[in-house]
Every structure is written in C-alpha cells, then in structure tokens.
Please model this.
Amino acid sequence: MEVTFENIKQAIVEAEISGKLRDLDADTSFDAIGLDSLDRYNVLLSVEEAFGIIMPDEKAETLDTIGKLVEAVQSLK
Amino acid sequence: MIGIEAVASYIPENLVDNHTRLETFEVDADFIEQKTGMLKVARRGEGEETSDMACKAVQSLVAKADLDLQTIDCLIVCTQNPDAHGLPHTSAIVHGKLGLPRSCPVFDISLGCSGYVYGLSILKSFLESNGFTKGILITADPYSKILDESDRNTALLFGDAATATLVGDAPKWAIGNFVFGSDGSLGKAIEVSKETGKFAMNGRGVFNFTATVVPGNIESAIEKNGLTKDAIGKFLLHQGSRYICTTIAKRLKVPLEKVPFGAAEYGNVVSSSIPMLLVDNIANKDPMVLSGFGVGLSWGSCVITPTTNEGKN
Model:
C-alpha cells in the first residue's frame, strides 16, 4: 500500500480508536483531540500492521500528528 | 474427571482511590474511568506477607466450600513476590500456617499474569498423574512489594489480592484443552529494573503484545476444544486494563458484554485477576475462555465447560 496521508488515515479510522480521527488533518496534534497514551499505542499499531513496518520506540514518541506519522512510515519503507 | 470445584478470593481492606491521585499523576478522570478502568487499587496491610494473603484466600475457600484441609492432596502457590526471598518457598510457609497434612506436596510456580491458566494445567495434571483427588491453586502476587509508587504507568494500575481455587474430582467446571506460548526475547517489556529494583513496564510493548498475540491464542484454544466463538458465554481475560480488554474484544470480534471487566475496585492483581472474575461468573451456564498473558512474555488460554455437578458455590 502506498504511504499517503489518506491511506494512513484510513488504517487508523478502521481501527475504531476514536471518531475524532475521521476529521483529523495532517497537522492537528493527537493531544488536541484528546488521544491519550493508550490511543496512541493503538494508532501506531494499526499503522504498523497496515504497512508492515515496526516503528522504533524512540521515533514513536515524537509522532504526534498524522503528518509526522506519514513521514516516519515513508522513511521506513 | 478433575476440574474446578470452587473459587474464593481475598482483597486487602486498604484501597487507594485513584481519583485522589489525578493531580499527582497528571491524568484526568476519564483516563482512570474509561481507559485503565482501575478506580481503586488494593494495598496489603503493613507487615502482611504473601503467605498471609494466601492463607486468607484459603480460609475463604474453606468457608465457601465447606472444605476439610486434611483432605487436600496438593497445594500450589503462584507468585513472583514470595515471602522474604522465596526460600523457603511460600507454599511451604502456607503449608505450615494452615497445618496441612505431611503427605501433602506443595510447591511454588513463578509466573505473572499468565500464572492462573498455567497453574490450572499443572495442578490438574499433578492430581491426575498421582491418583489424587483434591488440590488447591493459590494466586498471591502483591506487586506493592516492587511498585514504584511515583510511576504513573504502574502505580495507578496494580493492586494486591489473593485467590484460592479448589480443583478436584467433583467439578462444577470441566477444564478443557490449553494453548500456551512464550517469547523470552520480549521479556524486558515487563521486568524489575536491575538499576532501581522496582517494577517497570513498557506500555507500548505490552499493548502491542496483547493486541497481536492474545486474540490468536484465544482462537486457537477455542478451536482446540472443538468449539466456535459463538459457543463461548464469557471470555475471562487477564485484567490488564479496561482498554486492553476492549481492544482484545474488538480484535476477536466478540460482543463487549461477553468480555467482563471486573477490576475497577481493586486493580490489576496479576495472576489473581482471572480467578477474581471466576468468582463472579461461577454460576454461568455456557463454556468460558480463560486467558492469561503478561510477564515473560508468557500467555495461555483454555476453555472451561460447566458440568452437571452442583459444585460447592
């Protein structure tokens, strides 16, 4: 699957983590829509599974928007 | 047939209300109520040892099942926080405190949150292979001994409790087939730090493990018992957090009402969490899945099925 904003967002939405993720743009922080640490673990896992990657812990801690997530996944592909 | 006859529990009186610690740990009430699910965490009394908690659970079992301890053929304690340094083994200390017969073998097993499922298999096999008819499986793992009470990742989650399960030849629940697994390469996700001597947990590592490994393990256990998910009345999962239980339910594609969360009033009590749920679900009429997972990393699931016996509770 191509690493695009829409495809990553789709993977996250399908994980049914929070309805607020449907309306998220690339730069809105996860904090701003109330995603806590457990939700963020879930977001990362859904992306890891969809794109067949493993996100290192130190990198994962910096990913607080979908935009940053897209860049990080692209760097691992 | 050897199976589960009765289950009893002991929860210390000292309960810490997590709502009083929101500011300290910089978390909001929604996180406590909806995500971890642990409104309170139980803490053992000052000077209360693992063996004391174990004995109180057994005393509760004696009252509940009208049990004569002189008839017990074997006793197992599942703990990773034994009395003192684990020598002598806590089960031997319990043997002495309860005045069990000298003919009764006792031993500890060292497992965390998967321990109850493993313990059931061990005790059932031990009874059957030795021609015994009654055994007690104790879970007593007070994490307050190793918790860093300033660590929000663990202090808000873990509680102290003990349980005692009577396994014997007049079972209320037949114990079916098991499926187990281990991955020692991931062990550092849940460990006592060599530097601090305190318990530490990698939240993301544990979440990924439970979300990706446990649903498949449960499905394998159901299949090994010749059943389908629809035939399962309840899925009694280790109570890591409300969020973990919900995530596993979603990934299993089973209704959330079949996956009870019962730890809100005492916390994640490690190997005691499944038997604590069992106490509340002992009267169910459909097969149930028991699934434990955690320290090791280690996991195991089985299916228990109601018999025609009335049982002791």
In short: The interface with chain B takes residues 16, 36-38, 41-42, 44-45, 48-49, 57, 60 of chain A (CB under 8 Å).
